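Anyone? Bumping this.
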Amino acid sequence: MPELSLIGYWRAEGDTSSPYPDPRDWIDPDWDEVERDRTWFYFVSGTLFRAFMGYSPCRICGENNGAVEYTDGTYVWREGLAHYVYDHAVRLPDVVVSHARRRLRDVEGLDPDTDWWVEATAKK
Ligand SMILES: [Zn+2]
């Protein structure tokens, strides 16, 4: 896998010149609701990667899907990716869903250390 993989780019309906998939082909209304919610939760934000001048419309409903991309150091995705997952049940490839599940599991149940911040900001 390259250092950063672009995901969640879709072609408009009928656009045969785009190399990207049609999101309608990835809609899965039977997708497990918990897994779908967790996938949405993971991709709804990230570290800001790039911002564009123009907004990207949803390829399914036309809704404004934002103008920035996020990254987590592995994937880069348009901010509208979460909209496809949540509002249209566009199911991402298993490898992407597993990645999100693993990343969320890594931080679940961790108890943040509050003392560190207090010590780091204490005036000497
Ligand atoms: Zn939409």
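Late reply, but here is one note on the structure posted above: Residues 94-107 form the longest helix (14 residues).
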